[in-house]
Amino acid sequence: MNKKKIIVPLVLLLAVAVYFVVFHKNKNLRYIPENADAVVLMDIKKLTGQYLFSLATHPSHWSGRKSKGKSTGSLKDSGIRIPDFLQIFHIKDTKFSEWYSVLELKDSQKFIAFLKKQNFVDKGNNRFQKDQMFIMINGDHCIAGTSDLAFENIQKKLLQTSETPVWDADKFIHNTSGSISFISGQKIQNFSIELNDDEIEIKNNSTPEILSSIASKLQTGNHFLDLELDKENIRNFSRFFNKSIADSSQAVYLKATADLEQVNDTIISYEYDDNFNEVEKKAFQKITQPNYIIDIQSNDSKKTLEYFQSKKWVNSENQFTAIPFQPNTISQNNSGVVIHSTRKPISLSPRSKENYIFIRNSALLYSSLKTLGQTEKRIISDIDYVLYGNKSQNYWVKIKAKNGELPLILRW
Predict the structure, then answer these.
(1) Which candidate, 309, 333, 336, places its Cα nearest to that of 320?
(2) How many CB atoms are closer than 10 A to CB 400?
(3) Per 3-state DSSP, what percentage of the chain is helix, strand, and coil (rounded to 5)?
(4) Which of 14, 153, 305, 377 has the greatest number of CB atoms lying within 10 Å of its CB?
(5) Cα–Cα distance for residue pair 226/292, rounded to 1 Å
(6) Where are the domains of the chain?
(7) pLDDT bucket at 169, cuts 50 / 70 / 90
């Protein structure tokens, strides 16, 4: 038999198989409710291809991945049907920290076994929890979230009705590893998510030169936190906490600088001796505290201070109690108010007339996060800095990792 007659069909079949496995994607998004105001999409096939390419080009990592997979369990074999696009959403008028996702299951019993292997606690009624991750199994679907408050509502809107709208992935994502989109009525504002070798970039444009310029300037400093925001950026960020703060406080500009320091904290407790006399006991522990200064400029400094007082954020000792790290003091000047820590005062960094938030990683930061597991601490310790920047209608977020032998997709 002519070998060419066999090879050509096999090559064609292989090409078709590769197309459907790697490139063909189901762009119908069935698990995003109508009342979602933010959506995160992850292109699983693109990330899988990126992972396989990185793995193929780093053979020294092959044996390590196999041993790790055996000990932790494989998500692929967990009973979940891996989607082409992972759909994560936030529901309007819920807390900023509440995010949800719906996944299809191939085998619910295998998935339950996987959850138990991952140390999820069975809460009954097909609900499971591990730290701040909540899961509810509903037939051949599961709802996962950072909260369980909206589980019943999601179940009714997405899993118990045939009239759920189907979104098109092209409305949110365009050939990138992922995207985050904000929905307001018929308007959708998209930000691409790119996973590079040593950084993650989130942006709504393809010209990040301005952000790179800001980053290069800030890296020459040594502060843990440095930020500078105008009125519009203050308003955007205040929406995550309290919609009225920006307007009620009259704030038009915010500048802040902070450093971290490890200090001794005294813990006082009482016990009774054999004669039932109260005895004071002192214990000492090391805690991480910031030293900071915050300059809030406003249209009317008097009204700004009065607003803070009306919210009971200023006590009789002129301390700003909305910041939990004490002691501090708040004072009024001609342009606004200044809040600064008193234990070890620091100075504001020079004004740059840019909009940015720069957070430099510190061993004091991740070592003090007691509630995180070893995996989370390892990831945080690998981060060099996080930078948010804004110029006109252009926005960026960069999560820069420390230089390493492996790309992020293999490290994390």
Answers:
(1) 309
(2) 19
(3) 30, 35, 35
(4) 305
(5) 10
(6) 24-187, 197-411
(7) very high
Question: CA-CA distance, 77 to 167, in Å (whole number)?
Answer: 28
For residue 63, CA distances in Å to 47, 66, 69, 77, 378 come to 21, 5, 10, 19, 20
Going by their DSSP bridges, the two strands 178-184 and 328-332 should be labelled as unpaired
Question: E strands, 27-174, where?
Answer: 28-29, 36-43, 85-91, 100-104, 121-124, 127-130, 133-138, 141-145, 167-168
Burial class (CB in 10 A: 0-12, 13-18, 19+), 177: buried
Could you give the CA distance from residue 25 to residue 83 in angstroms, rounded to a whole number? 9
The span from the CA of 359 to the CA of 260, in Å, is 11
Helices assigned H by DSSP within 278-394: 301-310, 363-367, 374-381
What's the pLDDT tens digit per position in 231-243? Answer: 999 988 887 766 6
Query: What are the φ and ψ backbone dihedral angles of 321, each rounded to 5 degrees?
Result: -80, -10
Segment among 17-21, 127-131, 282-286 with least mean pLDDT: 17-21
Q: How far apart are CA 97 and CA 93, in angstroms?
A: 11
C-alpha 154/C-alpha 307 separation (Å) is: 38
Cis peptide before 290 (omega within 30 of 0): no
